[in-house]
Design goal:
Elements: H1 2-7, H2 15-25, H3 31-52, H4 66-82, H5 84-90, H6 98-113, H7 120-133, H8 137-144, H9 152-162
Helix pairs in contact: 3-5, 3-6, 6-7, 7-8, 8-9
């Protein structure tokens, strides 16, 4: 919190603010901040995926000026928008988007560095649920075994699914 405060809004006021901003934004140094950013990006990507489907990251690069590419792809984008109710139904079963995998990576990194940190319970809960949803029972087991109060039955559930 102190580093975030020193960094300020833009982190360009003083040399110390620039250094603090660099530390705060560096995923290697501040894994929790990177985890939160990736989760926010994942929520936005999921919402955009429901609305516009494969165009959630924009139109593909065709080597043309961006406005021309959008004009050429507008019929496909419009068609994709009409499929949003179906994608909304599919949302609970869809595969993870890249930002979710990135959030899990930073979450695990945070837990490795701060197993009993201030945000460890929240991060552990999210990463464990994410790994179970995608069927990575080894990853879920590793995260669960670091949780305080974990029962043998919970670990056995993961162990059974690993086999």
């Amino acid at each position: 919190e102190l580093i975030e405060e020193i960094a300020g809004d833009d982190g360009t006021e003083t040399n110390m603010a620039r250094h603090a901003a660099a530390l705060y934004r560096d995923p290697e140094e501040n894994a929790y901040h990177a985890f939160e950013r990736a989760r926010r990006r994942n929520r936005l990507d999921n919402a955009l995926w429901v609305l516009v489907g494969p165009y959630y990251r924009g139109v593909p690069d065709r080597g043309l000026p961006q406005p021309l590419t959008w004009v050429m792809d507008m019929p496909s984008v419009a068609e994709s928008v009409t499929g949003s109710p179906v994608r909304l139904i599919q949302l609970p079963w869809m595969r993870s988007l890249p930002a979710a995998k990135q959030a899990a990576h930073y979450g695990v990194r945070y837990l490795e560095r701060h197993p009993n940190g201030e945000h460890a319970v929240e991060v552990r809960r999210w990463v464990e649920a994410f790994e179970k949803k995608r069927g990575n029972w080894v990853g879920a087991y590793r995260v669960a075994e670091g949780r305080s109060g974990v029962t043998v039955g919970e670990l056995d559930e993961c162990s059974e699914k690993i086999r």
